[in-house]
Amino acid sequence: MNIIGQESAIIDGEIRILADGVALSGINIIGGGIVIESNGSRIEGCNVSECAGSGVVIRSSGNSIINCSITRNSLVGMKIWGSNNTVQWNRINANDDCGIIVYGDGNVIESNELLENIHDGMEIEGSSNMISRNNVSMSHGAGIEILNMSSGNVIESNDIYGNGECGIEVIESYENNISGNSLNGNGFGIKTERATNNLISSNTVISSIKDGILISDESRCNIVHRNNASSNHDAGIRIEGSKDNMVIGNSVHSNAIGIDISRSENNTIRGNRAMMNGVGIRLDIYSTANTLYHNAMIDNRQSALDSSVYYGRNIWDNGSEGNYYSDHICQEVCSPYNIQSGEERNNIDRFPLSSWDEHLMDIKFVWPISGCISAYAKGLAI
């Protein structure tokens, strides 16, 4: 069944699709929205606005929403309960809740514009989907939020800027791939809370109001790899209250702190370049058993600071090679480098490097990390 709107055709009410394979195009819907209960329908070139509820609700599979304008609705722009739907080239703006909320698996959401939605630009709830090449910006909350034990999502090549709380936020979710996104001027750039075994790789995170990348609140086994985190107001990359994470091969420059480890343990900080920050790498008083080597601290106001009360428990070398410090002049052999603590006793890098090369950023790893699942992912309380 094909339903094609004539020029300026307006429906004041709700369209509910109950038959499979309906094609709906060129219609303006005001007040009631579109509800899709059946499979395989195609909605194209429609305008859905000023609905009392959500603009588009999909409760089925295999549907396509293409090149529609979904704006100024009282609740969510689009809710997706079904699976394997395609949402492409739409403008989903200025809705009073989220732009899109996804509950189903296998949906492809790409090349859409989601601007100025009141809550989050997009929420992924307990599901696995492909989210790519969208512009998700200027929401009051997060640009993209992944929560409620979501796993297997790929969030890649999105432009995310000017969101009030966060560009991308991962809460109590695991094994999601967040790669190749551009984030600019968000509250936090990328943030995790109680999140496990996620890959955060090759993103550009600049000019965040707070931290560029924050791994927090008992997050474990996350890999932060090959990101550029620069010109953020606080830290380029911060690990806070978390353990067993890897921060490898990142470039952090022109932040207040390049890499900051706070109340965290057993993290690996390797092969990162920290340049022109207030402090290159800092560990606070309650951080312990962290390992740092092959990092380059270049032209920072202070290269490194380790204030841990667990003296000597953070290890600044791998047993034979440590880190490079541009303020440490080596002769034929490098003498140990004192890591300032602010107290009488300083930690040391026993084997500082006399030079540093970018090949030290090329680090092989296996993801997801085997055997690392938090209690919430097993359905237990933390």
TrEMBL record:
Residues 28-151 form the Right handed beta helix domain. Pathway: Protein modification; protein ubiquitination. Keywords: Repeat, Ubl conjugation pathway. Residues 167-328 form the Periplasmic copper-binding protein NosD beta helix domain. SMART domains: PbH1 (SM00710). Signal peptide: none annotated. InterPro entries: Beta_helix, NosD_dom, Para_beta_helix_rpt-2, PbH1, Pectin_lyas_fold, Pectin_lyase_fold/virulence, SCF-Subunits/Alg-Epimerases. NCBIfam families: para_beta_helix. This is Parallel beta-helix repeat.
